[in-house]
């Protein structure tokens, strides 16, 4: 049992979200007596976040579940600079228009996890370009600059690791931590925000914001970071051989998202049920006891519950049914990606590429040579194999990626 008194920190603690806190006792006392407003920042470097950001999104969801107010801070301003944390090279600079388009696209994901509105615990989304874009450089240097020493800035992991690897760190990126600290202070002034949440790699940036508000305004702010979420084999959460696991439905289907969770390693199932589903903890404890074949059933529960949060219950159950049809019954599901073929035939290489089961025809040829391509469940080793279509045909890349070829009627 958690030793915290507030429902907020108890919930975060019992589900495994807390790694570090600037003043856990002070935050616990604050959350016990009033609604706490807290935020997490997300840079808009792509039209979608990926599953590596999901633990942060779930933290905001937990805040709201515990009766507190989450702020989604979109980095319309900081995306113009780029966060050096965990990066070996500078990010490509995006235009203002591209960044705003990305923010509009990303918002769709948050609407699945949070309730937005004007109520005391309703979530709001704000853009730090609203204030960072209006800063006068000299004024910023005079107002904020004296509170930062280069000596201390060089000790932060986001800077130190890049320099240790002898990778260049631009002066533009070096300013990122100052602007993130300024964000925290600005949100405290504008929205009475007292808490910043983030991943463990953001600890230095969060502490900077706590210190800056204390020095400039005498305001007491708090920070909490999550542990680095890794899989049982030590890999970073969300990194797969096939690329990023995107959260936007137009970049990754509900079926493929479900399959990502179904492929969870045995040792991660209990942890992921706590972090990424709303199932009660006592039910998770019971599920976590299952072994052998029963554990596969628990993975399907994890996949369905996690997918339901993002894509809705109906889509999640359809994905589960599709998987059962594909793997258990060898059938063809309407939820799988399809490609309609003109002329009654198509080469297997073209089929794999057209169904986007392979990113290129070269990759498709390699897959066939390595024995990873199947047509209606039959392994095909001939790169020149031609599929004749008189009815729908299932094409597979490996054991988990499938699509359906349809003859033109």
From TrEMBL:
Motif interval(s): 'KMSKS' region? 236-240
Q: What is its EC number?
A: 6.1.1.1
Report which reactions are catalysed by this protein: tRNA(Tyr) + L-tyrosine + ATP = L-tyrosyl-tRNA(Tyr) + AMP + diphosphate + H(+)
Encoded by which gene?
tyrS
InterPro entries for the chain: aa-tRNA-synth_Ic, Rossmann-like_a/b/a_fold, S4_RNA-bd, S4_RNA-bd_sf, SYY-like_C, Tyr-tRNA-ligase, Tyr-tRNA-ligase_bac-type, Tyr-tRNA-ligase_bac_1
Name the Pfam families for this protein: SYY_C-terminal, tRNA-synt_1b
**What does the entry list as the binding residues for ATP?**
239
Asked if Zinc is a keyword of the record, the answer is no
* Record's subcellular location: Cytoplasm
Query: How does the annotation summarize its subunit structure?
Result: Homodimer.
Q: What is its main location?
A: cytoplasm
Q: What is this protein called?
A: Tyrosine--tRNA ligase
UniProt GO molecular function: tyrosine-tRNA ligase activity
Q: Where is the RNA-binding S4 domain?
A: 347-409
């Amino acid at each position: 049992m958690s030793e915290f008194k507030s429902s907020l920190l108890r919930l975060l603690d019992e589900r495994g979200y807390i790694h570090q806190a600037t003043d856990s006792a002070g935050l616990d006392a604050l959350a016990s007596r009033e609604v706490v407003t807290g935020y997490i920042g997300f840079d808009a470097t792509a039209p979608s976040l990926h599953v590596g950001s999901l633990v942060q999104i779930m933290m905001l969801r937990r805040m709201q579940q515990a009766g507190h107010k989450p702020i989604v801070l979109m980095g319309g301003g900081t995306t113009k600079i780029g966060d050096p944390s965990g990066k070996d090279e500078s990010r490509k600079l995006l235009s203002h228009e591209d960044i705003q388009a990305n923010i509009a696209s990303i918002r769709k994901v948050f609407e699945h996890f949070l309730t937005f509105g004007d109520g005391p615990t309703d979530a709001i989304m704000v853009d730090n370009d609203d204030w960072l874009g209006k800063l006068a450089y000299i004024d910023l240097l005079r107002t904020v600059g004296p509170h930062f020493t280069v000596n201390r800035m060089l000790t932060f992991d986001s800077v130190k690791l890049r320099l240790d690897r002898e990778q260049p760190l631009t002066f533009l990126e070096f300013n990122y931590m100052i602007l993130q600290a300024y964000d925290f202070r600005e949100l405290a002034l504008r929205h009475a925000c007292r808490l910043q949440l983030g991943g463990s790699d953001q600890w230095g940036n969060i502490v900077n914001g706590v210190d800056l508000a204390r020095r400039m305004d005498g305001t007491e702010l708090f920070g909490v970071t999550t542990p680095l979420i890794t899989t049982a084999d030590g890999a970073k959460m969300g990194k797969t051989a096939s690329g990023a696991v995107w959260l936007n439905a137009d970049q990754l289907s509900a079926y493929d998202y479900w399959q990502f969770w179904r492929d969870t390693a045995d040792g991660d199932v209990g942890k992921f049920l706590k972090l990424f589903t709303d199932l009660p903890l006592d039910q998770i404890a019971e599920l976590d006891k299952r072994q052998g074949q029963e554990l596969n059933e628990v993975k399907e529960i994890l996949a369905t519950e996690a997918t339901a949060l993002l894509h809705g219950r109906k889509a999640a159950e359809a994905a589960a049914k599709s998987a059962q049809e594909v793997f258990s019954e060898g059938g063809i599901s309407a939820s799988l990606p399809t490609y309609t073929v003109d002329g009654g035939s198509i080469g297997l290489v073209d089929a794999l590429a057209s169904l986007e089961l392979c990113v290129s025809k070269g990759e498709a040829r390699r897959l066939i040579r390595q024995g990873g391509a199947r047509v209606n469940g039959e392994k095909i080793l001939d790169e020149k194999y031609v599929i004749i279509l008189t009815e729908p045909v299932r094409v597979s890349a490996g054991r988990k990626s499938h699509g359906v070829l349809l003859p033109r009627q």
